[in-house]
Amino acid sequence: METFSEDPMGNNTLNCTIDHSIHQILSPVVYILVFVVGLPANCLSLYYAYLQVKAKNELGIYLCNLTVADLLYIFSLPFWLQYVLQHDNWTYDELLCKICGILLYENIYISVGFLCCISIDRYLAVVYPFRFHQFRTMKAALLVSCIIWTKEILTSCLVFTHGEVSKDAESHMVCFEHYPIKTWEHNVNFYRFTAGFLFPFSLLLFSYYGILRVVRKSYGTQKKKKIQIKRLVSSTIIIFLVCFGPYHVLLLMRSIFENSCEFAAKIFNIYHICLLLTTFNCVADPILYCFSSENTYQDFAKIRDTCLKYIRGVETEDKGTYPMNTPEISSPFVVTWTTEPVRT
C-alpha cells in the first residue's frame, strides 16, 4: 500500500499513537457472531419480505430494502475481520476501503431511514385509517425507497472524496480512522447526529406515541393484544437507542471535544464499542420485524423441527407449534389492526 492521507492542519494519524488492542479482542467475536447469525436470519427475512411484496403490501418494500442494506454490510464483514486480525493493517487498495466504509455507514443510515418509513406507515394506518391512502401504496413505497438510497449514496460520494487510508505510528495502513478527527469531519458528524439520528428518532417517538394512544383507547382490542403491541413498540425504540444511540452520542462528543491525541486515546475504546453496537442492528432487524409475526414464527419453528429431525436421524412425534398470544398479525409493522379497513 503506497497511499496515505494527511490532515491539512498537520495532525495526521502518523503522529498519533493509540492502543488498538480492543480491535483484536472484541471486534473479531462480534463480526463472526453477526455474520454467522445475521446472514441466514436476513436471508429468511428477505424471503418473508418478498411474500409481503407479492401480496401487494407496501411494507414489504421497506422490509426488503432494510434487509438488503443489512446483507450488504454483512458481506463486508470478512474484510473488516481480516483488517482487525492483522492489527488494523489494511492490505487491500483504498477503493475497497472506501466501499467497505460506505457499506458500514449505509447500513446505519439506510436502516434508520426505513425504520422511520415503517413507523410512519403504521402511524398513518392506525391513527388515520381512512385517510392518506395515496402515501401507503406500492408506488409511493418504491418512490420513497429510491429517494432514501439516492440521498445516502450522494451523501457518501460527497463525504468520502478524501483519502480514507492513512498510516499510523506503527506504519500500519488504517482504514477510516483519523486521530484526532480532521477538520472536515466536524460538520459531517454534526449532520450525522442531527439528520441521521436525532430527527429520525423524534419521528419514531411521535409515530409510536400516536399508535399506543389509539391502541390504548381502542375498546375492541383485547388486553393481551394491547400488551403485545406495547412490547413490540417498546422493543423497537429500545433497539434503535441501543444500536444507534451510543454511537451518535460519542460521535457528537468527538466532534466537540476531540482536538488532540490525548482525548482521542481516552475515548477510543468506548467509541469503538459503540460502533460495534451498530453492527447488531443486522441481527435485531429480522428478529423484530419478521419473526415477531405468528405466521412467520410458526414457519421458523417448522424449519427448526425439520433440522432437529435430520440431525437426530429419527422421526420424532410432531408436537405442532404453539401460538404466541399475539395480535391478529402480531408485529406492528406488518399489522392490519381493527382500526384500519381490510385491504385487498
UniProtKB/TrEMBL annotation:
All residue ranges annotated as the G-protein coupled receptors family 1 profile domain in the record: 41-289
Alphabetical list of InterPro entries matching this protein: GPCR_Rhodpsn (IPR000276), GPCR_Rhodpsn_7TM (IPR017452), OGR1_rcpt (IPR005389)
GO CC annotations, alphabetized: plasma membrane
Membrane topology: Multi-pass membrane protein
Swiss-Prot/TrEMBL keywords: Cell membrane, Disulfide bond, G-protein coupled receptor, Glycoprotein, Membrane, Receptor, Transducer, Transmembrane, Transmembrane helix
GO biological process: adenylate cyclase-activating G protein-coupled receptor signaling pathway; cellular response to acidic pH; insulin secretion; monocyte differentiation; negative regulation of monocyte differentiation; osteoclast development; phospholipase C-activating G protein-coupled receptor signaling pathway; positive regulation of insulin secretion involved in cellular response to glucose stimulus
GO molecular function: G protein-coupled receptor activity
Domain of life of the native organism: Eukaryota
SUPFAM superfamilies listed in its UniProt record: Family A G protein-coupled receptor-like (SSF81321)
Transmembrane segment boundaries: 29-50, 62-81, 108-128, 140-161, 190-211, 232-250, 270-291
Subcellular location: Cell membrane
Family: Belongs to the G-protein coupled receptor 1 family.
Name of the protein in its database record: G protein-coupled receptor 68
Organism: Salvator merianae
Taxonomic lineage of the native organism: Eukaryota, Metazoa, Chordata, Craniata, Vertebrata
